[in-house]
Amino acid sequence: MTQKITARDVNVFYGDKQAIRNVSIDVDQEDVTAFIGPSGCGKSTFLRTLNRMNDTVASARVEGDIRLDGENIYSKDMDVVQLRARVGMVFQKPNPFPKSIYENVAYGPRIHGLANGKAELDGIVERSLSRAGLWTEVKDRLSDSGTALSGGQQQRLCIARAIAVDPEVILMDEPCSALDPIATARIEELIHDLRGRYAIVIVTHNMQQAARVSQKTAFFHLGELVEYGDTNNIFTNPREQRTTDYITGRYG
Ligand SMILES: Nc1ncnc2c1ncn2[C@@H]1O[C@H](COP(=O)(O)OP(=O)(O)OP(=O)(O)O)[C@@H](O)[C@H]1O
C-alpha cells in the first residue's frame, strides 16, 4: 500500500475552541477512506485540513504535520492553488458555477494551463465528464447551464470539475446528503469506478454508505480519531467501546 497522505499530531482550533485533537492517520493511494462519527465530531474540519480549505476560515488554526507524497502541505513554499488542484474537493451541496456545463469543466484546466488549444480542452472536458459518468447524459447540451441539471447530475458535474485538473486525491464532504437514493447509488458506483485512479476520502453520516464504498474507515468522536482500520473490521469487530456504541446506534 502506498501512503498518499500522512498526517501526524494534527490539532485544529477555531479561536480558543479545539475541534481536532492529536489526529494521526495515513491515507492510502489505492483505497477509499471513510470518515464517520456523530455530528460535530470534527470529520469535516479534519477533511478540510487535507487541502488547506481551513485557510479560508479566519478563526481556524492548524497545528501538526500533514504531507502529500512526503511533501509538507503547510510549508511556506506550498502553492495553495496548486495544492487544491492536486487535492480536489466535492461538497455536500452541489455547487456548479452559474455557467455552461462545458465551462464548469473547462475552467480549471484553462486556468492551470493544462490544454494546448481548443481540441485538447474539448478532450479533457469529454474525458472528465465520461469518468464522472455524465457524458452520455450531457454531450448534446454542453452549452446549457450547469445549474439546470438535476441534483445528482450537478454533483457528478462537480466531480467532473474536480477530475478535470488531474487531481491525485479527491475529498468528498457528504457528497450524497442532498441527493435522493437513486442519485446516491450512482455516486456510490462512481466512487467504485474512480477508486485506484485517485485516492478518495469521503465524509459520511451514513454508516451503510461507509460500509459500501470504503476499504478503510476512521471513526471520530469529540475531535479525536478513536479508531481507524479496515472497514470490515470497524463494522464487525471494532476494538473500542466508543466505536461499538456508535455503529450499534447508541449515539449520533
Ligand atoms: N467555522 C467554524 N467556526 C467555529 N467553529 C466551527 C467552525 N466549523 C466547525 N466548527 C466547530 O468545530 C467542531 C467540529 O465541526 P465539524 O463540522 O468539523 O464536525 P462534523 O463531524 O463534520 O459535523 P457534521 O457531521 O455535523 O458536519 C464543531 O464543534 C463545530 O461547531
From TrEMBL:
<keyword id="KW-0547">Nucleotide-binding</keyword>
<keyword id="KW-0067">ATP-binding</keyword>
<dbReference type="GO" id="GO:0016887">
    <property type="term" value="F:ATP hydrolysis activity"/>
</dbReference>
<dbReference type="InterPro" id="IPR003593">
    <property type="entry name" value="AAA+_ATPase"/>
</dbReference>
<dbReference type="Pfam" id="PF00005">
    <property type="entry name" value="ABC_tran"/>
</dbReference>
<dbReference type="GO" id="GO:0005315">
    <property type="term" value="F:phosphate transmembrane transporter activity"/>
</dbReference>
<dbReference type="InterPro" id="IPR017871">
    <property type="entry name" value="ABC_transporter-like_CS"/>
</dbReference>
<protein>
    <submittedName>
        <fullName>Phosphate import ATP-binding protein PstB</fullName>
        <ecNumber>3.6.3.27</ecNumber>
    </submittedName>
</protein>
<dbReference type="InterPro" id="IPR027417">
    <property type="entry name" value="P-loop_NTPase"/>
</dbReference>
<keyword id="KW-1003">Cell membrane</keyword>
<keyword id="KW-1278">Translocase</keyword>
<keyword id="KW-0813">Transport</keyword>
<feature type="domain" description="ABC transporter">
    <location>
        <begin position="5"/>
        <end position="247"/>
    </location>
</feature>
<dbReference type="GO" id="GO:0005886">
    <property type="term" value="C:plasma membrane"/>
</dbReference>
<dbReference type="InterPro" id="IPR003439">
    <property type="entry name" value="ABC_transporter-like_ATP-bd"/>
</dbReference>
<dbReference type="InterPro" id="IPR005670">
    <property type="entry name" value="PstB-like"/>
</dbReference>
<dbReference type="GO" id="GO:0035435">
    <property type="term" value="P:phosphate ion transmembrane transport"/>
</dbReference>
<keyword id="KW-0378">Hydrolase</keyword>
<dbReference type="GO" id="GO:0005524">
    <property type="term" value="F:ATP binding"/>
</dbReference>
<keyword id="KW-0592">Phosphate transport</keyword>
<keyword id="KW-0472">Membrane</keyword>
<comment type="function">
    <text>Part of the ABC transporter complex PstSACB involved in phosphate import. Responsible for energy coupling to the transport system.</text>
</comment>
